[in-house]
C-alpha cells in the first residue's frame, strides 16, 4: 500500500468515527429525533445535515473500497488481476457515489417542488 493510500485510510477512519459519533448522538440519543419519512426528508432540507451526509458518503466509500483493495493486495494477485480488480472497485465506487448523490439531491428537490 502506498503511503498516500495508507494516510488517507487513517484520515478517513478518523472522520468516520467523528461522523458516526455525531450521527448516533444526534439521531439516537437526543430524544427529539424521529425516524419517519417526513423527519428524514426534513433533515435533508437543513444545509448542515445535507453537507454532513454529502461529505460522509465519499468518505465512507473511499475508506471501505480502499480497505478492500488493501486486503486484495495482501493476497499478492498478478498484475493483470490487480488492475482488473482496481478498475472494478473504482467503477463500483464511482457508480455508488453518483447514485448516492442523486438520491440525496432528489430528497432536497422533492420538498422544494
Strand tally is 0
Name of the top-level CATH class = Mainly Alpha
**How would you sum up the major sheet?**
none
Provide the low-confidence segments as ranges.
Answer: none
Count of all domains: 1
CATH level-four homologous superfamily name: Fumarate reductase/succinate dehydrogenase, transmembrane subunit
Which H/E pattern describes the elements?
HHHH
What is the average per-residue confidence, as pLDDT, rounded to a whole number? 89
Treating each run of at least 4 consecutive H or I residues as one helix, how many helices? 4
Please name the CATH topology.
3 helical TM bundles of succinate and fumarate reductases
Tell me the span between the first and last alpha carbons: 47 Å
What is the structural class?
mainly alpha
Report the C-alpha radius of gyration, rounded: 17 Å
Question: Beta-strand percentage?
Answer: under 5%
Shape: elongated
Helix content estimate = over 70%
CATH architecture: Up-down Bundle
Features:
113 residues, mainly alpha, 3 helical TM bundles of succinate and fumarate reductases, 4 helices, 86% helix
Summarize the structure.
This protein is mostly helical. The protein has helices spanning about 5-30, 35-45, 45-75, 80-110.
Question: In terms of topology, how is this protein built?
Answer:
Blueprint: H1 3-28, H2 37-45, H3 47-74, H4 79-112
Amino acid at each position: 500500500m502506498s503511503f498516500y493510500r495508507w494516510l488517507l485510510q487513517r484520515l478517513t477512519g478518523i472522520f468516520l468515527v467523528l461522523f458516526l459519533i455525531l450521527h448516533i448522538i444526534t439521531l439516537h440519543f437526543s430524544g427529539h429525533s424521529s425516524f419517519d419519512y417526513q423527519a428524514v426528508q426534513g433533515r435533508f432540507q437543513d444545509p448542515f445535515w445535507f453537507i454532513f451526509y454529502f461529505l460522509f458518503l465519499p468518505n465512507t466509500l473511499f475508506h471501505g473500497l480502499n480497505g478492500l483493495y488493501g486486503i486484495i493486495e495482501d493476497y499478492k494477485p498478478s498484475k493483470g488481476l490487480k488492475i482488473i480488480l482496481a478498475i472494478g472497485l473504482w467503477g463500483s465506487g464511482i457508480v455508488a457515489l453518483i447514485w448516492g448523490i442523486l438520491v440525496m439531491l432528489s430528497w432536497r428537490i422533492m420538498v422544494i417542488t
